[in-house]
Specification:
Layout lengths: L5 E15 L2 E14 L2 E3 L4 E3 L3 E8 L5 E7 L2 E7 L4 H12 L2
Antiparallel strand pairs: 1-2, 1-7, 2-3, 3-4, 5-6, 6-7
Length: 98
């Protein structure tokens, strides 16, 4: 990836389920979603902005909501604890400039 200047960032949480010794455990980790001039980068995946069709948000409690990344590969969901309004607006500004 060429552009290293982060335009906007939002934190998201990931919950993974592990089964150990016949007991189920949930592990909650926090990661960042970074918006760059040319891509959106997650902890383990990068989406080229040309392949991101839209970003939407659905709050589901007072403390969190789901951020939907609509791409040509499908919809990817991220649980966010803060309002992603500024992240989405920065994305829209970039998409308008293409």
């Amino acid at each position: 990836m060429t552009n290293k200047h982060i335009i906007s960032t939002i934190s998201y949480t990931r919950i993974t389920r592990k089964i150990k010794f016949h007991q189920q455990h949930y592990i909650k980790t926090e990661h960042d979603l970074h918006l760059f001039q040319d891509r959106i980068q997650t902890a383990n995946k990068a989406f080229v902005l040309d392949h991101v069709l839209d970003i939407s948000y659905k709050p589901f409690s007072l403390k969190s909501g789901l951020l939907y990344l609509h791409t040509n590969q499908g919809v990817f969901t991220y649980e966010v604890m803060t309002d992603p309004y500024s992240f989405i607006e920065e994305y829209k500004k970039l998409k308008c400039s293409f």
